[in-house]
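Please describe the entry underneath.
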Amino acid sequence: MKRWLPLIAFAVLALLLGFGLKNAGTKNLIPSPLIDKSAPDFNLPLVGQPEVFVSKADLLGTTYLLNVWGSWCVACRVEHPFMNQLSRSGILPVYGLNWKDEPDEAIAWLKQFGDPYSINMSDYSGRTAIDFGVYGAPESFIIDSRGNVRYKHVGVLNQQIFEREIRPLLATIEGEVSGQ
């Protein structure tokens, strides 16, 4: 029996890994405790303008998508064309949270791949990302006009996910605002 123990342990680990990979695409794999709660307070400098700060209070009154990204993030490069497309569409403002990035590298990356962010804040220390419960980049949040987190997506956001999950939520949020 002792000879079979490592093989049995390996088989169990392989099954768990297979189950995890199969279910990795399911919604809310990493649920956010912030959903339907107030977004964390922040006061951050803009990327490339360290003397200009934006706070959560400055963004109240507008529903927006907050995209956590970094120039060091490979998956962010995959997601970025969609962020550019979403920004051009005018459906909702796209704001950036540049996470733990060197300012010069972030600016160069945006020049190379385009800048979809109407507001792009620098979270060099990573404190704000921690407050939002960010596990890794990219992550995206929908923040409503009252400053509440309504949605969190971990990983690359694309058109299919936007249409399936975010567009219906935006319609709900719009209905709530007009029904006040």
The domain at 35-178 is CATH 3.40.30.10 (Glutaredoxin). The mean pLDDT is 89. The chain has five helices and eight strands. The radius of gyration is 19 Å.
